[in-house]
Amino acid sequence: MSRQPDPNRRSEQARQAILSAAADLCAEVGFAATTVEAIAARAGVGKQTIYRWWPSKAAVLLEHMQRARETSADFPDTGDIRADLLAQTTAVEALFASHSGAIWRGLLIAAQSDDIAADGVRALLEKAVTDATKRLSTAQVNGELRADADLDMAVEIIYGPLYHHWLLRARPVPNGYMKEILNVVFDGLNPRRH
Questions:
Q1: What are the DNA-binding region positions (predicted)?
Q2: Using CA atoms, how far apart are residues 156 and 10, in angstroms rounded to an integer?
Q3: Dihedrals φ, ψ of 180, to 5°?
Q4: Model pTM?
Q5: Cα–Cα distance between 161 and 172 in angstroms, integer?
C-alpha cells in the first residue's frame, strides 16, 4: 500500500522555499531587481504558486521581515530598562547588518510608491513602536523613567539616530553607538533628583 503525499506539507515546503528564495535574491541583487519570476525560478515553483499566497514581491519580503524581526529583535524585560534597550537596539543593529537589512532598506524605499509595501512597513513599525513604548511604560511605572516623559517621543529619539545612520550609510555605525545614544537619552529620562 503506497502512501499519498501530504499536500499541506508540500505547500509549507514551497512556502518556505519561496520566502528563502525571495530573501536571498533581494539581498544579492536588491529590491528593485528582484522579480516574482526570479523568485519562482529560484524556489522551483510556478509564479501562480507565489500569487496564490502573496499579491506581490513586496508582500513576500514583508513576511520574511516579520519572521526575522520575531526571531531576532524581541523586546526583553529584565527589570533594567537601560540594559533592555541596549540589548534590543543592538539586536536591531545586527538585523540591519544582516542580509535582512538590505531587504528592509528596499522595502522602506518601495513604501514611498507601493501601497502594499507601505502598509506592511507601517504595520511592522507600529508593532515595533508598540513593543518599545510598552516596555518604556513598564519602566516608567517602576520609577526607572520620569513620570512625565513622553514615551512616543522617547522611542523616536532612541531609534531615530540608528535609522538615520543606517539609511544614509554615510559611515559605518561606530562600536558602542547605541550605548552612547542611550547615555544621552537617559540624562533626560532619568527621574529628577531633588
A1: 35-54
A2: 43
A3: -65, -40
A4: 0.82
A5: 13
78/89 Cα distance (integer angstroms): 15
The string of DSSP letters for the chain reads -PPPP-HHHHHHHHHHHHHHHHHHHHHHH-TTT--HHHHHHHHTS-HHHHHHH-SSHHHHHHHHHHHHHHHH-----SS-HHHHHHHHHHHHHHHHHSHHHHHHHHHHHHTTT-HHHHHHHHHHHHHHHHHHHHHHHHHHHTTSS-TT--HHHHHHHHHHHHHHHHHH-SSPPPTTHHHHHHHHHHHHHSPPP-
Cell output for 160: 531615530
Please report the sign of the dihedral spanned by the C-alpha atoms of residue 80, residue 81, residue 82, residue 86.
Answer: positive
Distances in Å between the alpha carbon of 88 and those of 23, 81, 135, 162, 193? 23, 10, 11, 12, 27
Please state, in angstroms and rounded to a whole number, the distance separating the CA atoms of residues 167 and 1: 58
Ranking 30-34, 68-72, 108-112, 179-183 by mean pLDDT, the lowest is 68-72
Q: Give the CA radius of gyration of the chain.
A: 20
Average pLDDT over residues 83-104: 90
Domains (ranges, CATH) in the chain?
A: 7-60 (1.10.10.60), 64-189 (1.10.357.10)
